[in-house]
Amino acid sequence: MSDEVDATRIPELRTVVEAALARARELGASSAEAEASMQKGLSATVRMGEVETVEYRRDRGLAVTVYFGHRKGSASTADLRPEALAQMVAKACAIARHTASDECAGLADPALMARELPDLDLDHPWHLEPEQAVEIARECEAAGLAVDARLRNSEGASVSTQRGVRVYGNSHGFMGGYPSTSHSLSCALVAQEGADMQRDYWYSLSRAATDLEPGARIGRLAGERAIARLGARRLGTRRAAVLFSPEMARGFYGHFLGAISGSSQYRRASFLLDAAGQQVFPAFLQMQERPLLPRGLASGAFDAEGVATRARELVHAGVVDGYLLGSYSARKLGLASTGNAGGVHNLLVGAPEASADFPGLLARMGSGLYLTELLGQGVNGVTGDYSRGASGFWVEDGAIAYPVQEITIAGNLRDMYRNVVAVGTDVDMRGALRCGSVLVEGMTIAGE
Q1: In sequence order, what are the residues at sequence separation of 6 or more whose Cβ sits closer than 8 angstroms to the Cβ of residue 71?
Q2: Cα(145)–Cα(199) distance, rounded to whole angstroms?
């Protein structure tokens, strides 16, 4: 049998899924779904030029969910042998027989199943040997340490490559699977000047190794970012504009996605209850979900329940178009699944009428905080109250003046979303949510 984890394993995984579904039927389940997967990967970390870790991973698994009417049971195993599979399905059935009936439990609507499975160009293997991985990490770290003599230490540079294949099927007759890859390169460095020590990092993430940023650039950026934080000051308490960097903006919008998720809505645990049709953002802002982008880090023709994904305008002219729903939350709300079981698929945030490059955003802000790091979990998803430790740079006259730390930024997310005045063209592509910097007016900054 081949050692590769690629498209050639799909028939094998289909057989496993079909066997699990057949066994569930034999045991009396009215419906069932199963997913089988295989993964392998390699990672290496170098710290101060020395090899710290080299890890090789290989995993396989099968998860099955069975329904007896509206009673549900689930089980999983890493053993794909027929006898282990049969035992695992039997356990799922036993669990289902002892659970309470939930009228919203069940497979997704058969009419919503994906009919077309286009090639999304997600599989780009990187045939990386451990020695090569170590050398790439070593070169990355060395390039960063060479930036400045004040870079005295390192948290390491890491290289990772992963390839996997998954097949999902259910008793509606849906069966779909595909291989995919993910590669990354990162570096974190520590700068020191006297008693002042600061750390920062940079990383690259992509489906194809050829799309990764060069290791030397990643190391240099990590070093430059760490050096720039030396001499950080505290600020006095004030109200000011805050410019979220692209990395921080992802979390800023992420709270919105959590608030409009089906589970938050049906549990009535969201600061944006019944938000569909409401003006939440300024009229210039839009969010587009694009699940079929080639090489997208969150691309997929179907979601975790086999429901076809589709392009949609999640926010148009600042108005929320709808929610992020899987089949269970959709039934709870009396709606239809939006193909978001498992999360959002390539959400693009833009504002054609209110966008600018990074220097343009600084100029528009004039004075305020450029936010590059957040600490803590001070966000209340029910009320929208927001208070988190922060660090970054103080901006004066449209230019970065000095680094700041040990401050807190606070507000309410509803107000923060209404007070967005511009978004950046410096889009960060490293995730399911693609966005640039975002400028928010009127936040409280607590310091000395």
Answers
A1: 96, 97, 99, 100, 101, 102, 105
A2: 12
Q: Rounded distance, CA 177 to CA 6, Å?
A: 11
Whole-angstrom Cα Rg for the chain: 24
Q: How many residues does the chain have?
A: 448
User: For 260-288, how does the pLDDT look when each residue is reduced to its tens digit (9 = 90+)?
Assistant: 999 999 999 999 999 999 999 999 999 99
* Beta bridge partner(s), residue 312: 289
**Residue 1 pLDDT class (50, 70, 90 cuts):** very low
Contact 13, 5 (CB under 8 A): no
Residue given tokens 């310091």 in the structure block:
447
Nearest to 440 by CA among 242, 290, 294, 208: 242
Residue with tokens 């290496």: 44
**What tokens does 399 get?**
């230019």
Q: Is the pLDDT of residue 97 over 70?
A: yes
**Overall CATH class of domain 7-228:** alpha beta
Instruction: Name the residue ranges covered by the structural domains of the chain.
Output: 7-228, 238-446
Between CA 221 and CA 348 the distance in angstroms is 25
**CB within 8 A of 89, min separation 6: which ones?**
20, 23, 24, 27, 64, 66, 75
Say if residues 230 and 195 touch (Cβ distance below 8 Å).
Answer: no
* Span 376-407, pLDDT tens digits: 889 999 999 999 999 999 999 999 999 999 99
**Residue 14 burial (10 A CB sphere; 0-12, 13-18, 19+):** middle
pLDDT tens column, 188-245? 999 999 999 999 999 999 999 999 999 999 999 999 999 999 999 999 999 999 999 9
CA–CA distance, 282 with 276 (Å, rounded to integer): 15
Q: How confident is the model over 124-137, as pLDDT tens digits?
A: 999 999 999 999 99
pLDDT of residue 377: 86
Q: Taking the mean position of all CA atoms in its chain, how far away is CA 406? A: 27
User: Higher pLDDT residue, 49 or 4?
Assistant: 49
Q: What is the pLDDT of residues 123-180, one digit of tens each?
A: 999 999 999 999 999 999 999 999 999 999 999 999 999 999 999 999 999 999 999 9
